[in-house]
Write a structure and sequence with these properties.
This protein is of the alpha/beta class. The protein contains 5 helices and 9 strands. Helix content is 17%, strand content 22%. The strands form 2 sheets. A 7-stranded mixed sheet has the order 1-2-3-4-5-6-7. A two-stranded antiparallel sheet has the order 8-9. The protein is globular, with a radius of gyration of 16 Å. The protein starts with 11 loop residues before the first strand and ends in a 15-residue tail after the last helix.
């Protein structure tokens, strides 16, 4: 597609809510896990940080403000991603692990789960819960149970969501 372009740090994909590319830097050759697209979305308590599969060396170079509402954990919970320094800076309310049940890599790594617990993040895992659904606004992020009720945002399209602190998963 002639309209396609490579995205790089600082590119804004959407202005409201803001979705901004944090990685990779312009001119960096894409490829491998560290070529993944890291995104920040939203504002205030409802900010989201999507780490792709980058490792801790890349995480240390990411520029973002603390107080992340939802952190999509890097590399399916590999021990080389979502390091303690990033977690200390981000202070995520919710940590989302997208990981297959009984995967051959043993993800999520026990040391990663320990880091998330130490950071006080409410951990949500697709290998435990299946599909996960979250709603976000500048006021915060909350988990929706799509199996039990009509999606909240459809029933209440103008109402903000309140920030929540979820209990930790085992």
């Amino acid at each position: 597609d002639p309209r396609a372009r490579l995205l790089a740090r600082g590119d804004t994909l959407l202005r409201d809510p803001p979705i901004v590319v944090l990685w990779p830097p312009r001119g960096r050759a894409a490829g491998g896990n560290n070529g993944g697209l890291v995104l920040s979305a939203g504002r205030d308590a409802g900010r989201l940080l999507f780490l792709a599969d980058v490792d801790t060396t890349i995480e240390d170079s990411l520029a973002f403000a603390p107080g992340i509402g939802l952190l999509k954990v890097g590399h399916h919970g590999a021990s080389s991603s979502t390091g303690a320094r990033l977690l200390a800076r981000a202070g995520p309310a919710i940590a989302l692990l997208s990981v297959g049940a009984r995967n051959r890599f043993g993800h999520p790594a026990p040391d990663l789960l320990a880091r998330l617990a130490a950071a006080g993040a409410g951990v949500r895992r697709t290998d435990v819960s299946g599909a996960l659904w979250f709603e976000w606004s500048p006021e915060g992020v909350r988990e929706l149970d799509w199996r039990r009720a009509r999606p909240w945002h459809i029933a209440n399209p103008r109402a903000p969501c309140a920030p929540v602190r979820l209990p930790r998963s085992p």
